[in-house]
Amino acid sequence: MARKLILDVDTGTDDAVAVMLAALHPALDLIGCTTVNGNIPVASCTDNTLRVLEHIGRGDIPVYEGLARPIVRSEFPISRKVNDRAGKYHPGALPVPPTTLAKQNASAVEFLIETYRAATDPIALVPVAPLSNIAACIALDPKFVSLVPELVIMGGAHALGNVTPSAEFNIWGDPEAAASVFAAGFEKITLVTLDCTHRALITAAHCHALHALGTPAGQAAADFIGHRIAVHDDDQKQEIEHSTPVHDALAVGFLINPALITTRRLHVAVETHGELTVGRTVIDTHFRGSEAPNCDVAFDADATGFAELLLRTFAGKA
């Protein structure tokens, strides 16, 4: 039986690849997407998600719009430079046709709470965006934490920040939400960090192979990833020439093949006050703190296996 999941996204380029992978791989049953303010405003995230799903023939998957701002802060704790950088990677509307689909009437938070209350089968929750929606669910329904069997988060970093020297964007974008999620007591959390995603780089050669598949998903993935490569070449050169991490898709890939990433059981907390470190995931790699491990933290990944998974899935041969 296909594994059920809900994908919580702020759909820019890497989220779009994650949505396609979750929607098209036969081992997964994507029962819904929820959107949240993040890379771009939430309405644009919703529109992009609907565009991508319709483009690959999966308009049957419902999309629910969520929070338009962080749960505490009136806006991200960001500078103009950070805004400009995020815009380079996620430039508004994605290069796929406009959608004829519409978002659902219920909000993302309503959908998440009611879906987990009614669930009879396990449903993995995969947030690959700021954790505002998930924190709101925790605040509104004390039982929500006990109803979610598995949380797979793309976010955080140990040695490699991207939005600041110490923080990764998804956690930094709503640090109070992230802090509440890691402290909530979920039964199983897997954290796919930047340290991990940068070990599974997708190259320009992979993009050529994706485009050559001739499928809507293959060609769209090539466009999305190609854009990311161009920005990385200009802004944050990778160890492999003409390559990029596709962060969010790796979190989905883990659900298909857990061997794609290597994890350690550790305690994770989030800094919410530090002037230089707000949004940092404080990962106790040497057990210097007093808190018990609460998270399986990914530091390494199988780059070849990840690229092959994308190619097989978007070719329709998974």
Overview of the structural elements:
- The chain has 318 residues and is of the alpha/beta class.
- It has a single domain (3-315), classed as Inosine-uridine Nucleoside N-ribohydrolase, Chain A (Alpha-Beta Complex), CATH 3.90.245.
- It is 41% helix and 17% strand.
- It contains 13 helices and 12 strands.
- The strands form 4 sheets. The chain has a 4-stranded parallel β-sheet, sandwiched between helices.
- Helix 1 packs across helix 2 (42-55), helix 1 runs parallel beside helix 12 (247-256) and helix 10 runs antiparallel to helix 11.
- The longest helix has 20 residues, at 216-235.
- The chain is globular and about 50 Å long.
- The chain starts with a strand and ends with a helix.
- The model is unreliable at 78-82 (pLDDT under 50).
